[in-house]
Design a protein that fits this description.
- It contains 23 helices and no strands.
- By secondary structure, it is an all-alpha fold.
- The longest helix is centred in the first third of the chain and has 32 residues.
- α5 runs antiparallel to α7, α5 runs antiparallel to α11 and α15 runs antiparallel to α16.
Length: 440
Amino acid sequence: MGPSDLNPTIPRPGAAPVAANPVRRVAAASLIGTTIEFYDFYVYATAAAIVFPELFFPSDNPTASLLGSLASFAIAFVARPIGSIVFGHFGDRIGRKTTLVAALLVMGVSTTLIGVLPTHAVAGNLATALLCLLRFGQGFGLGGEWGGAALLATENAPANRRALYGMLPQLGAPFGFIIANTLFIALSFGMSEEAFASWGWRVPFLLSAVLVGLGLYVRLSLTETPVFAKALAEDRTTRVPVAEVFRGSWRTVVLGALSVVLTYVLFYLTTTWSLSYGTKGLGYSRHTFLLMLCGAVVFMALATPLSGVLADRYGRRPVLATAMAGGGVVGLLTGPMLDSGSTALVMLWLCAGLFFMGLVFGPIGAYLPELFPTNVRYTGASLAFNSGSILGASLAPYTAVKLQAAHGVSWVGYYLAAAAVVSLLSLLALRETRTATIDG
């Protein structure tokens, strides 16, 4: 049995080439799928900051409860590279489409099951263990989702518009964030604190089942990407993609991972950590700060397509380098702006951080896939992107809480600026890919 038997949208060797999927269908599948995946991820991130400390990590010390909750949040980022290897293997062996469907199911089922978990008050440490297990499942699924969605977009794109197509999966991040947090805001306004802590927090998790059904409907209508179908017809697939990646592209994986560290640190400091600090340290109500975040994420949504257009015109590295420098400046302004006592300056910091997040996030959807050959592109791009999450996202909220408690908010900003320097230096060690071919 070969890839053509497992994925009927792939032609058998010698058959006519596969045509690219229609633009609208590619856009819908890339955007809707990653919106759902990131919605699932952000639902957990928000809950980890505002309700999980008390429900699953109760303690006499509120900071200890918060740190426990944020540690569970980090589990998914450890799982993501594992998901990259597993889903990447099948994505590079049997095809992008089939693997994407499987990744969406794993993520959606894990999220939905969190919505029916007993809390620590009911099941004790078993509840905490099950939450951590399902959080691992979320990360495992997302580890396979991003790479497949990025390849679905870029491998169907015209050569001069790959960054524009590649930003479509990235655009799912702000959309998923807005949907997730709008739900939490509505629930906060629509019920008492007691009702929200009792059952209201479960609603966003349970709704994932409906969204996954929508995503499956869209993705099952696709055919395989023409680039992968051509590689299969020419017998250019690899038996063990991850071994080939480490044999021939390990340096690219390491530098690629380090180049996206800022992406994760910037986003999770301006969202997950800032939500915790804004409500507990600055005294904002939960729904007020969530509204501020939803407003600020609009700037990320606007910057993401802008970055795709600019990256196609001027190159990936100039756009990314500019965005990284901007992220470093935001880091240096963290203390003066967040501790200013001014809501306007707090909001400006959130908007600036998420604007540069959009600029640095958008081109990555094309840039990382372009660094790897077709036969290991799913594995290589996914592994680079998701390995960066271990150094970036998994540590960012936890580290920020520790730094703020020990040294003050300014040190959180220095941490962000340091991440910008690491990513910029790594980017400068990688090549420009705007004119690269991706069917080899």
